[in-house]
Amino acid sequence: MAEAIRMPLLSDTMKEGVIAEWHKKVGDTIKSDDIIAEVETDKATMEVMPYVDGTLLYIGVEKGKGVPVNGIMAIIGKPGEDFQAILDAENGVVAPATTATPAPIAATTETIVAIAEPVAESDERIKASPLAKKLAEEKGVNIHAVKGSGDNGRIIKRDIDSYTPAATSPVAAAAAPAAVQTAPTAPTVVVPVVAGTEGHTDTPLTQMRRIIAQRLAESKFSAPHFYLRMTVTMDNAMEARKAINLVSPEKVSFNDLIIKACAMALRKHPAVNSSWMGDFIRQNHHIHIGTAVAVEEGLIVPVVKFADQKSLSQIAVEAGTLIDKARNKKIQPHEFTGNTFTISNLGMMDIDEFTAIINPPDSCILAVGKIAATPVVENGAVVVRNLLKLTLSCDHRVVDGAVGSRFLQTLKTYLENPVTMLV
Predict the structure, then answer these.
(1) Taking Cα atoms as reference points, which of 62, 24, 17 lies closest to residue 40?
(2) Fewest C-beta in 10 Å: which of 115, 234, 378, 417?
(3) Is 400 a residue of the active site?
């Protein structure tokens, strides 16, 4: 019987998935573990497989178009099988038939698409990110000739941007593989800039960037933000980190120390570990710390679950693994959802201090700047201390100024005296 392959819900904020690439076409024989498409969500690009054997009878949308959650991506069945009944059942949404259809069958069944490990690409096709393929097509670059610098030789955006074709003879040019033909997508429009003239570059939004913009705008303009700033002296933390790394099986970073300190402070101030739910406030009993990570398409927030119950070395291992997965597009949905508090750290980029927009459903986000040697006055004398500036963005519907301030005071105590986190 024909089966509808539907768009799954891959994150708690996902409303639709965009088809970044189809790896099969109508008429192809499909095995249950074949990768049929890459789907771009609001968090990451995932490869999908149907867990259904048969023939690909129908593709719901072309590359670059979106499919709502639970909408039909494709239909798989026996060659020539009638699938019109499935489309008719979709509330009157009828797509063009792609194969001849005999008499209707008595019944149909449906299946939800299964998720394969992202970026695990086969040797039978080019190892390239959807964005790299798109740029190669737009620039007329023969992607077969590009050497990938990504994970396992995967071709990524910077490889296309930096690619310079080698001079080839007419014979070699004729022998080169033809560019892959795909359905038309909205191109990046580049207006050539000539001396003395104006120009611009228009880049179409990725699904991730579109959802980031939507969610942050909703957060900024629906949640009444206010900001609390505090300076922390990190001299003891720097010494403690050196001592910890002499015995820790995994190198502990300052960000790991901050994750642990925030988790411990949230345990004492559960009101900060809460979410605005519209007509009630949810106080979470678990503490899941998200850390904002910059990736090619925008931002993603890997989450260290139950961070208050883990040692510094455990946090270091888990956070490091999640950040690597995020940057290599191997992170899975359960690894970037469920946060109850978020940290955004730009200290490694030499930023002194900044404010961050709250990451829903959290009620607070901590912005972390760099540690800077700074002259300060102590007991009438000028001394140099290593100072760290923190800014806590709070949703005033959930967290009042006094509540947020007490949280920061506790966080400051933990960071200035790291040994207190161990007792």
Answers:
(1) 17
(2) 378
(3) yes
Report if pTM > 0.90.
no
Catalytic residue among 12, 53, 88, 400: 400
The neighbour count for residue 335, using CB atoms within 10 Å, is: 21
CA distance 73 to 69: 10
Reduced to 3 states (helix: H, G, I; strand: E, B; else coil), residue 384 is: strand
Active site residue 334: no
Mind listing the pLDDT tens digit for each residue in 382-421? 999 999 999 999 999 999 999 999 999 999 999 999 999 9
CATH number of 3-115: 2.40.50.100
Q: List Cα–Cα distances, 318 to 203, 302, 321, 378, in angstroms.
A: 35, 10, 5, 39
> pLDDT tens digit string along 187-216?
555 556 566 778 889 888 777 787 788 888
- The superfamily CATH assigns to domain 212-422 is Chloramphenicol acetyltransferase-like domain (3.30.559.10)
Is residue 58's pLDDT more than 50? yes
Boundaries of every domain in the chain:
3-115, 212-422
Beta strands in 359-411 (DSSP E): 364-378, 381-395
23, 144, 225, 396: the active-site residue: 396
- The pLDDT tens digits for 8-30 are 777 666 788 889 889 999 999 99
C-alpha–C-alpha distance, residues 318 and 316, integer Å: 6
3-115 and 212-422 have identical folds: no
The contacts of residue 262 (CB under 8 Å, 6+ apart) are: 289, 307, 341, 343, 366, 411
Give the whole-angstrom CA distance, residue 232 versus residue 366.
13
